[in-house]
Amino acid sequence: MTIREKLYIDGAWTEPDGGHYEVVNPATEEVVGLAPEASRAQVYEAAAAARQAFGTWSRTRPEERAAILDRAAAIMARDADAHTLLARAETGATTATARGMQVAVGSSRFRRYARGALEPVEEALPPQINEAGPMGKAGVFGAVAVRRPVGVVTCVTSYNNPWANPAGKIAPALAMGNTVLVKPAPQDPLSVFAMVRALEEAGAPPGVVNLVTGSAPAVGEAAVDSPDVDMVSFTGSTAVGQAIGEVCGRAMKRQLMELGGKGAALVLDDADLDAAVMGIGTTFSFYSGQICTAPTRVLAQRGIYDRLVGKLAAYTGHLKVGDPAEKGTVVGPVISAAHRDRVESYVELGRKEGARIVTGGERPDLARGFYVAPTLLADCTNEMRVVREEIFGPVVVVVPFDDEEEGIALANDSDYGLLDYVWSGDVARAFRIAGRLRAGGVGINTIGRNMEAPFGGFKKSGVGRDVGSYALHAYSELQAVVWPG
């Protein structure tokens, strides 16, 4: 039976004004379900419901907000098997990725922000002695900085992880006492409906969480420009982020933007090449390269350049490309036929620009599905578009450099600055280089993340920081309270 969803507005499941559109399995090209096509008026209605609910929810005791988030996490975990199958079907992620990196991370983020709802929001400031003057009598003045909820937050989420990404927005926003309007990516919104159902079952009051979807740009535009929306949290392309930023700027709405990336991986001549290959190689497999944090732009010192290219080529030979439901599959499809065509056009562009295609470059011989072969482009230069632009697929480009100074300069010669990486046997050297990289995060000899560390980008990779307690800060405003001692 095909899933046929409704909008969730003010605690009620509502038929969409615009009918439904098909959500397609990128591995089989079969219809997974029907997602609602909201009208602009319905989006505004959802935002108004969030505005109406904000007063009561923002004054709800933190312990009550924490209990609802914790129950929601437990409900998500309870139904993890079904959620895994749904996530795999609508995203094309492998079973292991859908289970461990999508559904499990989604529920764990709700648990994290259940605790986050109980974190202190006040910071005492040193008292200040003021002399008598135009502002009043002399005295000692105390002060405290208090984090208050922003208000109504629109959460526009990405297609590459329909569990972790929405959870990383919705949970901290609710923990801080905000209400939310959720607009998932049109390609794979069905998992977000499951997340909202968990919140409903957990006892989230009507209007606290509202969910609208649509394949038309007008739905997202309404979710951003509604006068009831105080803040927009967006994950997606830099171009769309810039358009959202213009709307927010005119209305002075708060923004949290996690945008594109073209992560530089500096591999120095003293690096453990096998470790570097294991890290860089995840670009070929993890979400089929559809991840903004991937080390897609490899800068290899000439002393190890040929060996590194050879090892990366050998790595791709062990990757099984195919149906993510089959055991042993490492590389699944990209999200859509249109995106497959886009990635392939970049590979062809690289060929024309003079890059050497070491592996890949041909469409996998599979009867159905939107597959792209893991592709390695060597002998690149920093001027090539395949090096400068985000491809968002299983494509790695390699650029040689001579010395440390040139490597740092190449890494920083980018419009992006989300996550960079340094592989070196000299940790002190790697830390020194990290301090000179214009990126929101730097991994040293690892692609691993510390999930309490701030996450966000420099330059066109975004505005603001989230993850851990930094997400609670992102979804709050600072208020100063001053009193005479």
Automatic annotation (TrEMBL):
InterPro entries: Ald_DH/histidinol_DH (IPR016161), Ald_DH_C (IPR016163), Ald_DH_N (IPR016162), Aldehyde_DH_dom (IPR015590). Gene3D superfamilies: Aldehyde Dehydrogenase, Chain A, domain 1, Aldehyde Dehydrogenase, Chain A, domain 2. The keyword Zinc does not apply. Pfam families: Aldedh. The keyword Oxidoreductase applies. Residues 13-481 form the Aldehyde dehydrogenase domain. Keywords: Oxidoreductase. PANTHER family: ALDEHYDE DEHYDROGENASE-RELATED. This is Aldehyde dehydrogenase. It comes from Streptomyces hydrogenans.
